[in-house]
Amino acid sequence: MEKASPEVAVIKMYEARKEIYPREIQGRYASLRWFFVWFTQILFYGLPWLQWNDRQAVLFDLGARKFYIFGIVLWPQDFIYLAGLLIISAYSLFLFTAIFGRVWCGFTCPQTVYTEIFMWFERKIEGSRSARMRLDRQPMSAEKFLRKFAKHAVWIGFALWTGYTFVGYFTPIHVLSEEIAALSLGPWEWFWVLFYAFATYGNAGWMREQVCKYMCPYARFQSAMFDKDSLIITYDKDRGEPRGARSKADAAAGKSLGDCIDCSMCVQVCPTGIDIRNGLQYDCIGCAACVDACNSVMDKIGAPRGLVRYWTDHAMARRWATPEIVRHAFRPRVLIYSVVLLLIVAAFFGTLFTRTPVKMDVIRDRGSMGREVEDGMIENVYRLQIMNTDESAHRFRIAVEGIDSVRLTGANEIALSPTESRAVPVAVRTAAGKGDKGSNKIYFTLTSVDDPHVQLKEKAVFFVPR
Length: 466
Description:
The chain is of the alpha+beta class. It contains 17 helices and 16 strands. Strands 8, 9, 10, 12 and 14 form a 5-stranded antiparallel sheet that branches. Helix 2 (79-100) runs antiparallel to helix 17, helix 4 (110-126) crosses helix 8 (187-207) and helix 6 (142-167) crosses helix 8 (187-207).
């Protein structure tokens, strides 16, 4: 008699994606979310077309190694400002997360913003939540094909426009438009337009909540930034349970039920498909769509709003009112974050707006360690890399000091056009017997003729032969 083979159990290491059909909802937080959609996208799509001093207002010209941000021109030597900007962004994230939870994810994150836009297109073409679910269950037909084709065509068109705008921050957008019209884009421009379009189309059209749940690291370490006084989306179990539908017969019979009628509206509107009634989950992006949905249901059944709302763990456990929540928001960690962030921001903008509008690098000719010329004088040759970082022309006077009788030979003035960079060869001489044998410190001084307060001093080495 043959033995029956044991059943093979298949354990899936990755759960297959279940399609989520978020329901459209109206309310305070939905309006706030759309405000940020409009605000961020007007900035993103509008800034490349803004002109400033006969040039694009915001342009990162990698070829010329100049970053134009309105009236500010930044060079590779100004990389420290990028580091400062990243530090400010990080501390801002710490501060706002400690107070408001994942407010960045729910309202201003590009993934949230573009997903909201793509879902708006989807609703306009395929219909409401129930219509989309019904359409996906149907076999392929001419109507279904046309709706799906129209949706993806609009998605791809919008994604290409997004990629084109992105590249417009690095290639002047008027030039880029002419190149696109003539189909003469360079290979890197083609690559970045298509790559950014593909990323937008894939992330906002197809992956959506998968980006937030599996690709974004913020969901994983957010718990380290929360505490018991951080605002999070919470469900008031004391008030809502036991949940269940109710009827007039239940009320007449004195059946005791909580305010939650188990309508699942909070689940239907969630872009990540979670049930907030199960407690805080890393999938929750803090968009507050469930708050709007629950409040609308509470209005219909005549119950007070706030069954699902922004709340803190301490407020929920101790039943705090809003003034008490606000008072506990200003706790030590928040005050420390605020003070550090304020100091960094002050230092960042203080140095940015008071920086000298000229830069100079001194490079000594290493092919000649110092030579004796006519009249027994000692000469060293240098190359001064001078950059006028201002958008106005300037004339600069070059001087040298540090050793007795040291002086420049030749012209000692240079005129630079706006944002011009030029290499200036100079020869420095001193009388024989002056200075120590070997290396001597000297200083090149660059002074603006039209504004003597603009002055820059750089150290160099003058070599006297032994």
